[in-house]
Structures are given as C-alpha cells and as structure tokens.
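Structure tokens please, single chain.
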Amino acid sequence: MPNLSSIQPYALDIALAAGVLAIICFILAVIAIAKANRLKRRLNAWKNISSSADLEQVFSATADAVTRLERELDEARAQMSIMEETLRKKVSTPAIQRYNAFSEVGSDLSFSVALVDGEGDGVVLTSIYGREDSVTYGKPVTAGDSSYLLTEEEQSVIAESMGQARRSTAYASS
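Here you go.
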C-alpha cells in the first residue's frame, strides 16, 4: 500500500491538472454550443426559403426555378432578336434635302426625301419645282442604291437616312 505522505505532494498537481482540464472542456463546450447555434440559424434560413425542412427538396425546387428562369430568358432573347430584325426593316428617320433645281428660280423649293430602313431598302422621292410646272419622282432603293439613275441630292439623302437608321437600330440593340 502506498504511503499517504508520498501521494500528498502530487495531490496539488493532480488537482491543478484536473482544473486546467475542466477549463479546457468548458471552453470546448462553449465553442460547440456556439457552432450548434450558428448551424441552427443557417438551417432556419433554409427553412425560410421553403416550408419544407428537407434540404434536398429545397435544392430541387431551386434547381427547377433556375431552369424555368433560363427557359424564360431564352424566350425573351428570341423575342428580342425578332424585334431587332423587325426594327431593321422599318423606316426609322426620313432624311430630306431642299435645293434649288434651276438657277433661274430663286428658292429652295425642290426636294429629295429618302425613306429607307437599316439595310438601305426603301424609296427616295424627289420633287423638282419649276416656274411653270413641278414633277415628282419615286425611285425604289435596295441596299442604298437604285436601278434608276440617282441624283447627287438623292444619293446624299439616302446616305443620311441610312446612317440615321443604323444609329437608331444600334441604339435599340444596346
């Protein structure tokens, strides 16, 4: 049997070690409780997303929603592409130039008007004003040119109208 006097010097060391161990255990317990509370809050946040506590079901519902949104986005992109194509085919801004066709007539009463789309298709209208009569011409325009001879003024208004059409369709698609 061990002698009590030989155990007594170690009793203080054993009690001190047990105290340190108890403090370490207490700190670990507080950390574990804090982590458990944090996980509980995160689980409650997931529960707020869906009425189900089943995370697999929440994930599945989220994946379905993302798939539906991607489908809707693809449909919106297709519709936007159709609208952009339609916009390119519309006359955006007509261009007009007034000028004096005959030097003996004192004012700019003659004019050319271009009505073309973003691809340069449309019509150019020209009215030549003279003292005794006026004549109006309409010429088809395809890709910025016509099968009929174009005057300098007609070419100018076609170029101006095409530039405005390109700017407006570029603005609409941005």
